[in-house]
Amino acid sequence: MRKKIVAGNWKMNTTPAEGVELIKGVIAQKGEVCSCVNFIVAPPFTHLSEVVKVAKGSGIAVGAQNCAAEAKGAYTGEVSAKMIASLGVDYVILGHSERREYYGETSETLNKKMVQAYENNLIPIYCVGEKLEERESGKHFDVIRAQIEEVVFNLTPEQFSKLIIAYEPVWAIGTGKTATADQAQEVHAFIRKVLADKFGAAAADTAILYGGSCKPSNAAEIFSKEDVDGGLIGGASLVATDFINIGKGFSK
Ligand code: 13P
After folding, report:
1. Residues of 45-67 as b/e, b for ≥16 C-beta within 10 angstroms?
2. Ligand 1 centroid to residue 73 C-alpha, Å
3. Which of 169, 70, 164, 75 lies closest to 111 in space, CA to CA?
4. Is 96 a catalytic residue?
């Protein structure tokens, strides 16, 4: 049985105090959701320490949104995987399209970040997804295959067994335009096939999350698809009730 995961990517939103209120709100309502759902929240770096403390014992795990490609040293402004892990954080989002697009992250950078994540026992949530023009020109499968081959294929089978993948079509992120459940399923099944070609039967256990304008009103339909194992939620994860109601997309 694959894990069911609902992860919130808070992006660059909330002050630390607001973040603590948000996680408290999620904790307060978590009992309304099937205990089969694994919740993860990924606040900004500045909030991690406090959010880890508040989330302790709640069953909600904490992730970072990024980590440095290097272990330590003269890299002004960077935050290492070791620093993050030492706070009690368990996950790290890597390869988000906003990092690829605005901060020039390439497969080369992401390979280094993956190494740092695994060396520090952080579980990567590795994001892939095509831009609108890539989908419109029918190149989306090639783009996604390359994003996987160039990074995920460098993992050992043991590392791969822990990996979480998120499929986030760029045209659906923050646009209100969600992929249909069938579009999500088509790509998720494709991703699983690409993974199986390399890692064999282990790919059947990989959690593949959908991200892109996922909200309470569409989560259940998207999550009902065979190869969709949950969601990576942006905007709707900033409202505790919405995030919880997305979790209810998995029935009790
Ligand atoms: P939205 O849910 O705001 O579209 O963002 C999705 C996302 O990028 C999560 O990482």
Report:
1. eebbebbbebbeeeebbbbbbbb
2. 32
3. 70
4. yes
105 catalytically annotated: no
Residue 252 has pLDDT above 70, yes or no: no
Specify the pTM: 0.98
Helix residue ranges, H only, 97-215? 97-102, 107-119, 132-136, 140-149, 157-160, 181-199
Of 161, 163, 177, 248, residue with least CA distance to 211: 177
Smallest CA-to-CA distance from 116 within 70, 150, 75 is with 70
Q: What digits encode the pLDDT tens for the residues 167-205?
A: 999 999 988 888 999 999 999 999 999 999 999 999 999
Residues 6+ away with beta carbon under 8 Å from 176: 213
Residue from 47, 96, 140, 188 carrying the catalytic annotation: 96
- Going by CA atoms, what residue is nearest to atom 9 of ligand 1? 234
